[in-house]
Write a structure and sequence with these properties.
The structure is a homodimer. The first copy, chain A, has three domains: about 180 residues, BirA Bifunctional Protein, domain 2 (2-Layer Sandwich), CATH 3.30.930; about 110 residues; about 90 residues, 3-Layer(aba) Sandwich (Rossmann fold). Helices cover about 40% and strands about 15% of the residues of chain A. Chain A has 18 helices and 16 strands. In chain A, strands 1-5-6-11-10-9-7-8 form an eight-stranded mixed beta sheet. A five-stranded mixed beta sheet of chain A has the order 13-12-14-15-16. Chain A has a three-stranded antiparallel beta sheet with strand order 2-4-3. In chain A, strand 9 and strand 10 form a beta hairpin. In chain A, helix 1 crosses helix 14. The two termini of chain A are about 50 Å apart. The interface between A and B is large, with 110 and 111 residues.
Chain lengths: ~450, ~450
């Protein structure tokens, strides 16, 4: 019996319409990445397991898809692991490769492996799928695309300025108003923890703080107390729960709060530098905000932290993010290579653009006209026109069979083809083509050159 | 100690130059696919194992990369398979998913799964990587891209005509002269085997015949004799070893040879129909040839067989191929769905274009100008220009650090950046920018609008 076809959970087929819309976004990303001097690279879908394992924490290791070795893979497996059914221990004996989990670790590996071919600073972009064995849920997939731009080999804060401009350019080209790039700095978070005397509880402190918009001030305080952060410390930090105003206003409050913290002041200085430059250069579409509660990716970011919030009218949350990591390539033996990077969440941006109905008609450009097939002689007559139209860059097709007229018209209709051409004995006689507009029903007889002119 | 980074054998990193050149080819493919009315789809990188297994023969099954189940995958494994270390039997117990091996089976699965959304005939193209656990060797990789266009749901021979035109359009746009599309028809091969009384040895017969250009007439005869094809039969088939002339000439010979074979005559009729149409429509770049020895993919092609030969001046062999299969989707329960498709060999086309030095300079367009960084004030002055240049669509960058002049110039040089801008106190004073052509050494002072005009 034939199998009922299906695909693995958490993966997707993309229809022609979906691919066209995705490519519309990807083309805008690619165009802007290149306009800003980022160069494209691509890395293999799978890496040696030891390149990936241990880079994303225990949870990450678990979510990495492992590839079974080829051939008689059990021949080298230890008897003990087999008889104790020790999946964990067996994995490294029967699997040497794994699907990439993100684009950052492969990029770090690339930089180290190719360091002698690269002239630093190196700015690359990469648009490729990644895979995670996560529980599939709404908007979360096991195969999804990451769109990353990173710059390594310079600790200039002008890189951060450039990335904010890049966000502005991309969302401008997408026609997406109301996007906010929220910024913070790891050094501010360290300074806050330090200044309240809880430097050793930095992670607990920031994890709780990060939840402010979800669980509110009381919830955050409750969590901090549970984690052993003292009431006195919490009192000292309370002002930041209610920080408001623009970027510069918030900096004033932070300056007062962090006056005694060397690292905190460094963080303020960095944010102020970036904000001053952005103010001098101006933004067209996005706005920049300082969000002291932002702690995204705290375990690797060392300076700037970015998170991109979708327009408030759609309930989507983050559609991008990034930050600076001072030692991207150290894990692979290349020290002191500061990097900063951002990513765009393709799937979520797609959903936002769809919800706000911002995909332009040209993103869906398909076949412009279909020639109706009336039989042998007529089809050859039509194919000659089709050839000339294509040479003029106009997408056109002949229906391949001399099927019933109704069937062919319905095909044009279902595929949203705007025009059909009808050419029978009379048209051939006069060397013309009857062009019918499927929307208006208008018909006119045109010579081949008039036809090209009409549709160009 | 840090790991020395590497990638799995048979996989590749692509540098910025390589990605740009690959995208140049892919963009030409994509453009022509769409011009011809093919619609893009994408399918997941991995499929359920039962979708793939058993579709490519025993050898194929072995070469499919299997993905280990997540979590405690051994808990469901049978004790017997573990204790006997039976890799083969264990695989289906610990792996439910596998990386796709080609794009044809996933396409067939897609058509059946989405049959109610599709209005047939359905013409799709797909450009995605596939994976095979093959022994890596020169020009053969474990991860490589396939670029396929297929049309299903019509047995009109005009589809074959269209595919030949598509090859012509693509190789024309690539500027690649001297490509030959070789054609044959499965029915011709069946007719030949039938007419010499060896219909039951069709496979042995065609496999031997296919080797004519490698092992010569004597070699082919020797192999046929070894496979039990009679001397009498071989005598009857000898004329095809020496067939020559153009497409029409060869058809004349075949007509004489296959006069008594119903299926053979049907094959001739099909080839003649296609050739007549192509002659009436004309080809611009490629030439079409009839090659009776062509047996590529005999196990699934039922009508036309295509193979694309690279220009003779490069020793590359096949750079594409395809054919018609009358029952593409039957394996998934959708009967009577005739399909015809072709593929382009991206990696080999790349090598040919490279060898013949046909990549245009625009395929490598990188950053056009680099602004030299002289410090705080100067860099902000430059960033204002960079912003305006980018808005005008001109790729430009500011070097992020106020590094030594020599280092910055050398960076421009190594990245093949054509222009640098030098702007110090004097330029700021006069509101101009000094543009230096890196190749000629020419320098001139320009206002921002002159700069944009100069570089547009």
């Amino acid at each position: 019996m034939a199998q009922k076809p299906s695909i693995p959970k958490g993966t997707r087929d993309f229809s022609p319409e979906e691919v066209s819309k995705r490519n519309y976004i990807i083309n805008i990303l690619r165009h802007n990445f290149e306009l800003f001097g980022f160069q494209p690279i691509e890395t293999p879908s799978f890496e040696n397991s030891n390149t990936l394992m241990g880079k994303y924490g225990e949870e990450g290791d678990r979510l990495i898809f492992k590839i079974l070795n080829s051939g008689d893979y059990l021949s080298k497996a230890s008897e003990a692991n087999l008889s104790f059914k020790d999946s964990n221990a067996l994995t490294s004996e029967i699997s040497e490769k794994a699907l990439r989990y993100d684009l950052t670790v492969p990029f770090a590996r690339y930089v180290v492996q190719h360091q002698n071919e690269i002239d630093f600073p190196f700015k690359r972009y990469q648009i490729q799928p990644v895979w995670r064995a996560d529980r599939p849920q709404k908007g979360r997939f096991r195969e999804f695309f990451q769109c990353d731009a990173d710059a390594v080999g310079s600790d200039s804060l002008l890189q951060e300025v450039t990335f904010i401009q890049l966000y502005d350019a991309v969302f401008g080209d997408l026609g997406l108003e109301g996007v906010t790039v929220k910024m913070n700095n790891r050094k501010i978070l360290s300074g806050l923890a330090e200044t309240i005397g809880e430097a050793d509880k930095l992670i607990d402190f920031t994890v709780a703080l990060d939840k402010l918009d979800k669980i509110g001030e009381e919830g955050v305080i409750k969590e901090m107390l549970e984690k052993g952060i003292s009431q006195t410390a919490i009192e000292r930090v309370k002002p930041i729960f209610r920080v408001h105003g623009n970027f510069a206003d918030k900096l004033i409050l932070l300056k007062a709060l962090l006056a005694d913290s060397v690292i905190g002041k460094k963080g303020i200085e960095e944010l102020e530098y970036i904000n001053t430059k952005i103010e001098a250069l101006g933004l067209s579409t996005i706005s920049l905000d300082l969000d002291v509660t932002l702690a995204r990716g705290l375990n690797y970011y060392t300076g700037a932290i970015f998170e991109v919030a979708a327009p408030k009218i759609v309930a989507m949350g983050s559609i991008g993010g990034g930050g600076r990591y001072d030692d991207l390539t150290g894990i692979f033996g290349l020290k002191n290579m500061s990097g900063v990077g951002i990513s765009f969440g393709l799937d979520r941006i797609y959903l936002v653009i769809e919800e706000l109905d911002l995909f332009p008609a040209q993103a869906l450009k398909g076949t412009k006209l279909l020639f109706i097939n009336f039989g042998e002689t007529e089809s050859l007559y039509c194919l000659k026109a089709v050839k000339k139209l294509r040479e003029a860059g106009i997408t056109s097709e002949l229906y391949p069979d001399a099927a019933k007229m109704k069937k062919q018209m319905s095909h044009a209709d279902k595929r949203n083809i705007q025009f059909v051409v009808l050419a029978g004995a009379e048209e051939i006689e006069q060397d013309v083509y009857t062009l019918k507009n499927m929307k208006t029903g208008d018909q006119k007889r045109l010579s081949i050159s008039e036809l090209i002119q009409e549709l160009n």
